[in-house]
UniProtKB/TrEMBL annotation:
Cofactor annotation comment: Binds 1 pyridoxal phosphate per subunit.
Any GO BP: L-arginine biosynthetic process
Binding residues for pyridoxal 5'-phosphate: 102-103, 134, 219-222, 276
Protein name per Swiss-Prot or TrEMBL: Acetylornithine aminotransferase
Keywords, sorted A to Z: Amino-acid biosynthesis, Aminotransferase, Arginine biosynthesis, Cytoplasm, Pyridoxal phosphate, Transferase
InterPro entries named in the record: AcOrn/SuccOrn_fam, Aminotrans_3, Aminotrans_3_PPA_site, Class-III_PLP-dep_AT, PyrdxlP-dep_Trfase, PyrdxlP-dep_Trfase_major, PyrdxlP-dep_Trfase_small
Anything else known: May also have succinyldiaminopimelate aminotransferase activity, thus carrying out the corresponding step in lysine biosynthesis.
Gene (UniProt): argD
Statement: the UniProt record of this protein carries the keyword Magnesium: no
Cellular component, GO, one term: cytoplasm
Subcellular location: Cytoplasm
């Protein structure tokens, strides 16, 4: 299929896409090749915390590109050292390994945990993960995920992952054996429909893993970098995990991810881990300005305020249309539609120039830029109000 001058059939067909080609972005908006404008509450699946093409990121990339793209990961570079120090100073972790994608960071976390088991726990290698979890699309991270659609794909899976139930500490306890080395989870399960781990559950999980000598790994690919109103999601529960992974928002729109660990858990030997482009100064330059901006207390407070406003407006919308609960935290929220109509709602919203996501057939997910405005939130709510009425999504009750 072609839509001159764009040859769609040159790209591998791995997902359904509308026949629209985006050519420009600024803040909360995207423009296609026909000059149509779209209000974007997906933001590349939460990869643009400062919106599309923020000036500070573009300037940082341009300046760094003129100086040095990459000297090879066999050598230190200034930007990766600075970004690693900034991450350590703002978290409970001691060391950082940079990667290019969330899946790669999670793969690194799995390898690090298994190395820890080899060194310190008599070869223990199993990692307890959770039903509904999503950790990436490599073979190991798909195996670690609890996504039903992955179960029949690319068999045989990588062994060593046992699935517990989110917010059920006893289900975790029952799976622990002499082969267990770690527990790994997302503070909020995004792909499952935005289901949060409660703060109490995270505290119980930290206590249990410490009691049993297990590593606690938090996958903050989506919840990290201010998305929940704190710099990292685990901070809401007041715990200190052993390992954390970051991706999506850390690069402000460019490919950057990170694996962080405490000194206790950092046990790679030379040659165990690497990557040709990992920690290159171009991507780390972007990460530096993003983290510098988002880690400011006033910025994080604005995320909390915007999240509370969006949550209130979604609750009002839900009440009006007889829909379900609002789940999530900060600016990672879901609206329970109580029926499998999300695809139709997303399609109608797209036609009206608003981009939202449906992680499940009965849920809508909202991941706007962290600097989203009150006016932009109002526009999305008004659009959804019209769309829900148009598609007959639910009976009005008020």
């Amino acid at each position: 299929m072609t839509n001159a001058p764009h040859p769609f059939d040159a790209l591998m067909d791995i997902t359904a896409r509308p026949e629209v080609v985006f050519v420009r972005g600024a803040g909360s908006y995207l423009w296609d090749s026909n000059r149509n404008r779209y209000l974007d509450f997906v933001q590349g699946w939460a990869v643009n915390p400062l919106g599309h093409s923020p000036v500070i990121v573009a300037d940082a990339l341009a300046a760094q590109a003129r100086r040095l793209l990459t000297p090879s990961p066999a050598f230190y570079n200034e930007q990766s050292l600075k970004l690693a120090k900034l991450l350590v100073d703002n978290s409970c972790f001691d060391q950082v390994f940079f990667a290019n994608s969330g899946a790669e960071a999670n793969e690194g976390a799995i390898k690090l945990a298994r190395k820890y088991g080899t060194k310190y726990k008599n070869g223990a290698h199993e990692i307890i993960t959770f039903e509904g979890g999503f950790h990436g699309r490599t073979l190991a991270t798909m195996s670690a995920s609890g996504k039903k659609a992955f179960e029949p794909l690319f068999e045989p899976k990588v062994p060593g992952f046992r699935k517990a139930r989110l917010n059920d500490i006893e289900s975790v306890r029952k799976l622990i054996s002499s082969s267990t080395v770690a527990v790994m989870l997302e503070p909020i399960q995004g792909e499952a429909g935005v289901w949060p781990a409660t703060d109490e559950f995270l505290k119980e999980l930290r206590a249990l893993t410490q009691q049993r000598g297990l590593l606690l790994i938090v996958d903050e690919i989506q919840t990290g970098i201010g998305r929940t109103g704190k710099l990292f999601g685990y901070q809401h529960a007041g715990i200190e995990p052993d390992i954390m992974t970051l991706g999506k928002g850390i690069g402000g729109g460019v490919p950057l991810a990170a694996l962080l660990a405490t000194e206790h858990a950092s046990c790679f030997d030379h040659g165990d881990q690497g990557g040709t482009f990992n920690g290159n100064p171009l991507m780390c330059a972007a990460g530096l300005v993003v983290l510098d901006q988002i880690s400011k207390p006033d910025f994080l407070k604005s995320v909390v305020d915007a999240g509370l406003l969006l949550e209130r407006e979604l609750q009002r919308l839900s009440s009006r249309h007889g829909l379900g609960e609002i789940r999530g935290r900060g600016l990672l929220l879901a609206l329970d539609l109580k029926m499998p109509i999300s695809a139709a709602v997303v399609a109608e919203a797209f036609a009206a120039g608003v981009l939202i996501n449906s992680p499940q057939p009965d849920a809508l997910r909202f991941m706007p830029a962290l600097n989203v405005t009150r006016e932009e939130i109002s526009l999305v709510i008004d659009c959804l109000d019209t769309v829900l009425t148009k598609v007959g999504a639910a009976r009005r009750v008020a």
